[in-house]
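Hello again,

I reread your note about wanting to compare the complex against the isolated chains. To keep things tidy I'm splitting this into two emails, and this first one only covers the full assembly. Below are the input lines as submitted, including protein chains and any nucleic acid or small-molecule components. They are followed by the predicted structure of everything together. The single-chain runs will come separately.
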Amino acid sequence: MGRWAPGARQRLVFAAVDLFTEQGYDATTVAQIAERAGVTKSTFFRHFPDKRELLVAGQEDMCRLLSDGIESAPAGAGAMTAVAAALENASTMMGPDNRDLAPRIKAAVSTSAELQERDALKSVSLAAAMTTALVARGVPEMTAHLAAELGVLAFKQGFARWSDGDRRDGRDLAELSLEALDELRVASRSLD
Amino acid sequence: MGRWAPGARQRLVFAAVDLFTEQGYDATTVAQIAERAGVTKSTFFRHFPDKRELLVAGQEDMCRLLSDGIESAPAGAGAMTAVAAALENASTMMGPDNRDLAPRIKAAVSTSAELQERDALKSVSLAAAMTTALVARGVPEMTAHLAAELGVLAFKQGFARWSDGDRRDGRDLAELSLEALDELRVASRSLD
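Full-complex prediction:
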């Protein structure tokens, strides 16, 4: 199989998640992941800097999609409308694979302090990207922080409902994230 | 100097922050920190598992103070009143040393991806502790998540104003955190 065979990246992710599930995150090496995926170690390193980054891959793409969504919201739109546009945009990068792998990735993260740290940084990065994009639209800083945190919470809640939920529920990730964002908006009005 | 000399923990933190400032976080070893603080490496390891934990020390204590504050809020108090009590309680563990070291710790964190990850996990842990304590009071889950995130944002903002601010401003960390919490509450009512 050629080193640049299409799908190598996806096969690496599947192989890694299988191995993390079977033998734990700490015990799994890059060499084992590459072997299971049928590629060389060099191919692994062309796709990911290390095994930890493999599980949070896509953070930069997601930050960009969130920022773009906020930037392209209509000129008069408020902060929450812009955040809704961000979540719709970011949802486009999640497909059936992400949905199916989610429970096993969650299990792997729950067993590794190192992965929990990396995962926490991902949340913080997504919030920071949205805050920056909102401030650039003229949203006051505290409102921007707040709206961005609501966006991250809603996206996590939406993703959990989407990946844990019944596959017969025909709603997609964007709908479930916007539903969660609406719930948070309602909750934010009645805080006491 | 005895290995259990009082103040060893504090001296280790000061020595570490000095070394991180002078030569960077990555280049600094536990042995160097211990030597600068005038203690043995064993003493270092009695206080901290590694140099990374030294900079986020107190996370567990802070989680406990936040939870206790929420738990001990009056029976009829709403989520935000309980969060305010949490911030007041957590503020008690921050003294003049924390205030003075803050800019240099911030500088060290900004240069190290590893420290940023650990710092992000600390924020996530504080939010989780407050969410759990709020749910235990009967606050609905989405409201609890929201109020806890506002609490973390307010505490970070309050801490930044306190450590960056003019020392002639006589307000303490608790006051500045509650001020930020009020701003976030106002912002949350006008989200659109």
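For quick reference: The mean pLDDT of chain B is 91.

B.
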